[in-house]
């Protein structure tokens, strides 16, 4: 039987059809993946890939071989998932990785409802801007990422929430803003996405004369907006509760919005869904993200 490492390298390369992406998934070098694939081909005595100028293509043998390897890995993962904790004090758990702003502004305020639904499931929230590998031992079970298709074929991607941006500010500041032209004397609160120039162009408005403030995360810019320090851009998902409670106001409504190609996507390894707690948490996330009515102002 070929070494397991060669089969893992083949599986990743067959899914991505790219040695570099396979290497990133496996946390090894591009050369290591290529070497493992060559070793597997030598062991089997057949070519599994055709090396083309723009990437890889599976040979007929490779196409026939890959589904069987996927099923074998699925059987291994299922066996591992079926090993339940034997100690009474051990708890079922699910780990989700999300961006810090999504954690602070959307997920954490809603976690109480999941705890009420499943009090025996421990939720571990990993807030990080980094793209994490998912589904392996010691790795997060699922992720919410601000991204756009295409996604890794080993992941099930479900669009949760839009990322269309519109301005929000405190009620006191909103009282001084009748039209986008009034932004000329206002402080703009920028985040790492720096979308204000595009929104101003969309609204046919000039940039303010005053210096703005810049933050590394959207949640920080929104914190400054809540404090009345200026006006920020945000998607409805991250400000829905503040708008409903009138802590923030959309001074120009939500019709003038910067439509984004990206959205918040729920990413779940297809094998991870065999765990009941992961399936339950995923279903809860989908229910919580169902559309809510947006305010006009």
UniProtKB/TrEMBL annotation:
One Pfam family hit: LysR_substrate
Record keyword Iron present: no
Secretion signal, residue range per the UniProt entry: none
Biological-process GO terms, alphabetical: DNA-templated transcription
Keywords assigned by UniProt, alphabetized: DNA-binding, Transcription, Transcription regulation
Alphabetical list of InterPro entries matching this protein: LysR-type_TF_proteobact-type, LysR_HTH_N, LysR_subst-bd, WH-like_DNA-bd_sf, WH_DNA-bd_sf
SUPFAM superfamilies: Periplasmic binding protein-like II (SSF53850), Winged helix' DNA-binding domain (SSF46785)
Coiled-coil stretches: none
GO MF annotation: an example: DNA-binding transcription factor activity
Domain HTH lysR-type: residue ranges: 2-59
Family named by the database record: Belongs to the LysR transcriptional regulatory family.
Protein name: LysR family glycine cleavage system transcriptional activator
């Amino acid at each position: 039987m070929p070494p397991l490492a060669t089969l893992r390298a083949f599986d990743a390369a067959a899914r991505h059809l790219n040695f570099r992406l396979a290497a990133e998934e496996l946390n090894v070098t591009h050369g290591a993946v290529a070497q493992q694939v060559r070793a597997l081909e030598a062991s089997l005595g057949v070519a599994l890939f055709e090396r083309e100028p723009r990437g890889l293509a599976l040979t007929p043998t490779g196409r026939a071989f890959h589904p069987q390897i996927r099923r074998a890995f699925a059987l291994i993962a299922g066996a591992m998932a079926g090993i339940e904790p034997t100690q009474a004090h051990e708890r079922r758990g699910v780990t989700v990785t999300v961006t810090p702003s999504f954690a602070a502004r959307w997920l954490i305020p809603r976690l109480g409802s999941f705890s009420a639904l499943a009090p025996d499931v421990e939720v571990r929230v990993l807030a990080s801007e980094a793209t994490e590998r998912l589904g392996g031992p010691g790795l997060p079970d699922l992720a919410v990422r601000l991204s756009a298709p295409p996604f890794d074929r080993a992941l099930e991607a479900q669009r949760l929430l839009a990322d269309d941006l519109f301005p929000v500010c405190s009620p006191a500041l909103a009282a001084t803003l009748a039209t986008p032209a009034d932004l000329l004397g206002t402080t703009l609160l920028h985040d790492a996405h720096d979308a204000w120039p595009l929104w101003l162009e969309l609204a046919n408005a000039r940039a303010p004369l005053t210096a703005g403030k810049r933050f590394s995360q959207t949640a920080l810019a929104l914190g400054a907006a809540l404090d009345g320090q200026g006006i920020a851009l945000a998607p409805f998902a991250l400000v829905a509760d503040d708008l409903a409670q009138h802590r923030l106001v959309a001074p120009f409504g939500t019709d003038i919005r910067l439509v984004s190609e990206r959205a918040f996507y729920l990413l779940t390894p297809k094998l991870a869904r065999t765990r009941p707690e992961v399936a339950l948490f995923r279903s809860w996330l989908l229910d919580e993200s169902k559309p809510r009515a947006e305010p006009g102002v």
